[in-house]
Each structure stands twice: as C-alpha cells, then as structure tokens.
Design a protein that fits this description.
With 191 residues, this protein is α/β, with parallel strands linked by helices. The chain has helices at 20-29, 47-58, 72-82, 108-119, 124-130, 148-157, 180-189; strands spanning 3-8, 32-35, 65-70, 92-96, 134-139, 160-164. It contains seven helices and six strands.
Length: 191
C-alpha cells in the first residue's frame, strides 16, 4: 500500500507557493503520492468549505495517510480529523505555523474571517484517537503565530514541537522555499 501525503496551504495561499512544491518533490522521492489541493476561496476560508473540500480530496484515510498543514491549513486538518469515524487511524500530522490564537489581525475583515476558526471548539480527544504522531513547527519570529501556540499544541495534542530560528511565517516572502524539519517529521512518522 503506497503512502499518501496531503499538503494543505493556508489563508490566501495556493498549491505552488512557499515550500510546498519542494516538500512534494522530496516526499515523492521517498515513495509518497502527494497532493497539494487548491482550497476553495483562499482569501475567505470557511471551516465547512475547507473541511468538506479536504474530505473529498482524501477519500478514505488510513495509516498510510499523512497530512502537512500550513497556518490555517493545520486548523483545517484538525477539524477534518475530528469528524472522522472513530476506527480510522492516520499515519501522522505535521503542523507548520499552526495556531489556536492569533495576535495581529489588523482589519475588521480579517477578524470576521478568523473568528469561526478561533472560536469554534475542537475536540482534541477525538483527534488523538486518530493518531498519536503529531508534530508542530514554529518560528521564533513569526509575526502572526506567537510561541504560546507551541504550548497549546503540546497541551491539547501532546504534539512534538520544534522551534525554528528566524523563519517568520514560513512563507516564500521570508525566503522559505524548503523546510527540512517538515520533511524529516513526515519521514520519521512513516517509518
């Protein structure tokens, strides 16, 4: 059975940006089938649309299914996992710049878009039934996702956490077009 990986971009993101194409290529070298779906309405992400789109893309998840999310993509994956039937186990999850709180929402529009993601509770116990392999990667100078999120990932999901130096929000604008820690985390989980 071949291993599958799904890379889920963030708010305002698209499949070809940041480190996603590099990670896809590296995982394919390690015999993964990789998809980076274009999520619907990326500039106005909604939980139902994104989770529904991910569920359609994945089909049936199993222990050879791995997820890598960036920013709101992490939230999408967590909310997708929360809805899976209890008996389904996945291979693992890597969250890059994932969040449960955001500090610097500037416009009213940003606050309105972010509110459901921040305020709708997530059932962490359900998620942990689907996998105990969760890694969360943060940057020590992320302008959007502060390091308190690292503590929350540890507390809620017992995630293995990694703090990178000077990677901002892990975007191409910050010069991040490769992300070795994410690749290593997936490969480690898939052994």
């Amino acid at each position: 059975m071949s291993k599958r990986a799904f890379i889920i971009h963030g708010w305002g993101g698209f499949p070809d940006n940041h480190w996603f194409p590099w990670l896809k290529q590296e995982l394919e070298k390690n015999n993964f089938t990789v998809q980076i779906p274009a999520m619907p309405n990326p500039d106005n992400p909604t939980i139902n649309e994104w989770v529904g789109s991910l569920a359609l893309t994945v089909g049936v998840a199993d222990e050879n299914t791995f997820f890598i999310g960036h920013s709101i993509g992490c939230q999408t994956i967590l909310r997708y996992l929360e809805q899976l039937p209890e008996n389904i186990k996945i291979g693992g999850l890597v969250c890059v710049a994932g969040f449960f709180r955001l500090l610097h929402l500037e416009t009213e529009e940003e606050k309105i878009i972010a509110a459901p993601w921040l305020d709708t509770p997530i059932n962490f116990e359900k998620i942990k039934k689907h996998t105990n392999k969760i890694s969360a990667i943060f940057s020590d100078n992320d302008p959007d996702v502060d390091l308190d999120n690292k503590k929350l990932f540890k507390k809620y999901l017992n995630a293995k956490t990694i703090v990178e130096h000077n990677k901002e929000h892990f975007t191409a604008d910050a010069g991040i077009t490769e992300l070795l820690s994410a690749l290593q985390a997936v490969l480690e989980m898939s052994k």
